[in-house]
Amino acid sequence: MEDFTTKGNLDEILASPDFKHLVYPANLFQQRLKEEFLRTNRNNRPFTLIKIYVHQFDIFSDWNKTAMAIRSWKISVLTLLSELKFIDVIGFLPDGGLGLILLNTSIEDLGGIQKDILRHLYDAQLMDVLRFHTKRPIFEAFVQTGTPEAESAAEQERINAFNKNAQPFFKLSRLYYADDVLPKTAGRAYRTFMKRVIDVSCVSLALICLSPVLLFCALAVKLSDPKGPIIFKQIRVGKNGKLFTMYKFRSMYVDAEERKKELMKFNETSGPTFKMKNDPRIYPLGRVLRKFSLDELPQLINILKGDMSIVGPRPPLPSETITYAPWHNMRLSVTPGLTCIWQVSGRSDISFEDWMRLDNKYVRKTSLRQDIGLIAKTFKVVFKGDGAY
């Protein structure tokens, strides 16, 4: 098995006198990517990020096949580079390879580029190279359309259709801020690891220490409304749009969802969320559970499962995310949590738009020190019961 490295060929292409685009160093390219991501969220101007990696082919040691792989790789890269416009951005990636930001480029435009590459490979009689096994697709593309979340289902269908016909050369997916825009540094990897260690160790200890409280809450639910289950299960939206089942102690009567429609006119919050200070669907002891956030305790199990973290934006309902504007989606790029900046800043007393801004602020400036500070503030807020209803 031969591991063919295309690094030298990539340098050769970039050094060509015909190649007139400025190649950004990795740190500046990452900054431009972040700027374009935020700009697209504001003005709905689409762009595509394409990553070209330098370690691609993993094939049997056959020089003829290796030569074909080299030629096909060069043709593919040069075809893509020929599509660059003056406004597009090209630069090195922190993890090796080359990154391209194609501005004002949609999924359909990317499909046209793919067809051009396939046509050039066909003209060069290199179509057989598509059957070679590659470690990863030569071009990993990420699309950021800036469309409202209500259109995401149709967008995902277009992405799936593209990948179905893309051959081994392309892989297309949606662009997520935390995973795709922020650089994958050793510091970030360490924070992610330590955050998970803290989650598992603290939650395991909490489940043991709070077992009497958990038992009390379970009895309170059963005695208050014997007809329904103790645990309320609900589908929520997690990191990068992944759905999961969230657990809570049931604080409402069993017919709460049926009665919600008739109460919507009394909604006391802005945006897609529903909050009502004197919600008649909540039974008396349920108000106590909510005031001191005791109904949230079963989510400790969600944290152990990895669906949630102690600190992170609250996981929304799928029906809420449908109404999201593009900039709201940044809060979905990290693992949701029990508490975040919103929870210690007024909770239900804060407008929906300000809530989204606080969550996005957390995503942009997340750190272990901030997490520890938010946990400490949460205890104070919970004991006071401010903004909880």
Q: How would you describe what is shown here?
A:
The chain has 389 residues and is α/β, with parallel strands linked by helices. The protein folds into two domains: 2-181, 2-Layer Sandwich (Alpha-Beta Plaits), CATH 3.30.70; 186-384, no CATH class. 45% of the residues lie in helices and 15% in strands. It has helices spanning 7-14, 26-43, 63-81, 107-123, 152-164, 177-181, 186-209, 211-224, 256-263, 284-291, 299-305, 318-321, 352-364, 368-384; strands at 2-5, 23-24, 47-52, 55-59, 89-92, 98-103, 139-144, 170-174, 231-237, 243-249, 309-311, 337-339. The strands form four sheets. The chain has a six-stranded mixed β-sheet, sandwiched between helices. Helix 3 packs across helix 4 and helix 7 crosses helix 11.
Characteristics of this structure?
Alpha-Beta Plaits, alpha/beta, 14 helices, elongated, disordered N terminus, 12 strands, 389 residues, two-stranded antiparallel ribbon, single chain, 6-stranded mixed sheet, 15% strand
Give the gist of this structure.
The chain has 2 domains: 180 residues, Alpha-Beta Plaits (2-Layer Sandwich); 199 residues, no CATH class. 31% of the residues are buried.
> What share of the residues does DSSP label as strand, in percent?
5-15%
Show unreliable segments: 1-5, 57-63
Number of helices: 14
Biggest sheet layout: 6 strands, mixed
Euclidean distance between termini CA atoms: 63 Å
What number is the mean pLDDT? 81
CA gyration radius, whole angstroms: 25 Å
Shape: elongated
Number of domains: 2
Widest sheet, order of strands: 2-5-6-3-7-8
What letter string, H or E per element, gives the SSE order?
EHEHEEHEEHEHEHHHEEHHHEHEHH
The total beta strand count reads 12
As a percent range, the share of helical residues equals 40-55%
